[in-house]
Amino acid sequence: MATIPFPTEPQHDLVLFDVKARRYYTLDALAGMVWDLVQQPMTLREIRDAVMDCFDVEPETVERDVMNVLREMESNGLIEKTA
After folding, report:
1. Which residues lie below 8 Å from residue 75, measured CB to CB, with a gap of 6+?
2. Could you give phi then psi for residue 15, rounded to 5 degrees?
3. Pick from 33, 39, 67, 71: most CB atoms within 10 A?
4. What confidence tens digit (pLDDT) does each residue in 62-82 have?
5. What's residue 20's pLDDT?
6. For residue 75, what are the β-bridge partners?
7. Contacts 24+ apart (CB under 8 A), 73-82
């Protein structure tokens, strides 16, 4: 498993500003954690496991929620898929 470069405690909301689109994005604790995790190359399983370490939720629920966050971030141009 990858080393987690942030506190293991979920943080409060995080606000991002997209300079190009001139748009603000407010990320809840889960989305903020995912944002921190995707700053380095990680697999979906590594992201899911890191999130499960902080939230008391079933693996299937975490994976579904993480996928939803990733899709939304991608559709808003905040992240890009890599091969």
Report:
1. none
2. -115, 125
3. 33
4. 999 999 999 999 999 888 887
5. 86
6. none
7. 73/31, 73/34, 73/35, 73/38, 76/18, 76/25, 77/18, 77/21, 78/16, 78/18, 78/25, 78/35, 79/38, 82/41
- Burial state string for 18-53 with b = 16 or more CB within 10 A and e = fewer than 16: eeeeeeebebebbbbbbbbbbeeebeeeebbbbbbe
- Angle, vertex CA 60, rays to CA 67 and CA 34, nearest 5: 35
Distance of CA 17 to the CA centre of its chain: 16
Structural domain spans, the chain: 29-75
- Please choose, from the candidates 39, 30, 37, the residue with its C-alpha nearest in 3D space to the C-alpha of residue 66: 30
Cβ contact 47:1 at 8 Å: no
